[in-house]
Amino acid sequence: MPETKIPAIIMHMEQQTKPRVAVVEDESDLRDNIVRFFNARGYPCWGAESAEAFYREMALHSAEVVVLDLGLPGEDGLKVAEHLAAARHYGIVIVSARGSLDDRLTGLGVGADAYLVKPVDLREIAASVDAVWRRLGEKRLSPTIHPGNIASRWLLHRNHWTLSTPTGASLPLTPSEYRFVRCLAESSGEPVSKEHITVALGGSPDSYDYHRIESMVSRLRKKAQTVIRCELPIKAIQGYGFVFSDTCELV
Question: 114 - beta bridge partners?
């Protein structure tokens, strides 16, 4: 009887007993304490001080459970939780000083798996992360895609700034990434010049550094490979600009 070979990625995930944890917290001392606590107990863990920093780091390091503060500078934690919940691949543990019943219900309503109120013991945070990791269960090993949920095109969501693949996975976008993708989507498959993209990003074609666009696209591609495990249909047109080479609908 031939030996059955188990794919390496499945073996790795079956053997993985602790999730990779991201801590999104703007209070540096608390963030560092949580990261040290998790690292000391064998969890791969990293921190970010804002939503924007979190999105950048996710493109490089990824995470499976996110410990999330709500009172962040810039984009708040509720919006981050919405993005993560839409992607359907992450555990979300909110740790916030907002402790009213309405706050807790709102946090859980946008998709958080657990809601802890500061001050909170670090052991309780770890216990919540472990519980969320267990509940993810088979979903993290073999996510199921239901045919009825598969779209025939990419979807760019106006309300929560996510880009959904034809298979239903969702990629959270920063404000600049959203404006960039929207600019391409609105061109209906026609190439868009860097000058046009610059204006869409709020810059001036006369003074804008086009390398910033190229760097943003590079980060976006890396984030897509990490978060939704696929290549974006965004192609560079040498000496001109970019094109979204697949159908993308604004919804």
Answer: 93
Cis peptide before 191 (omega within 30 of 0): no
Residue 135's identity, in one-letter code, is R
* Strand 162-164 with 154-157, pairing: antiparallel
- Packed helices 101-109 and 77-87: angle between N→C axes, nearest 10 degrees: 30
**Mean pLDDT on 154-172:** 86
The model's pTM is 0.56
Domain range 150-250, its CATH number among 3.40.50.300, 1.10.10.10, 3.50.50.60, 3.40.120.10 = 1.10.10.10
Domain ranges of the chain: 8-141, 150-250
**Does residue 144 register a pLDDT over 50?**
no
Q: What is the pLDDT of residue 150?
A: 38
Residue 230 neighbours by CB under 8 Å, 6+ apart: 165, 169, 224
The answer to whether 38 touches 15, Cβ cutoff 8 Å, is: no
User: What's the pLDDT score for residue 1?
Assistant: 38
Retrieve residue 27's tokens. 């209070």
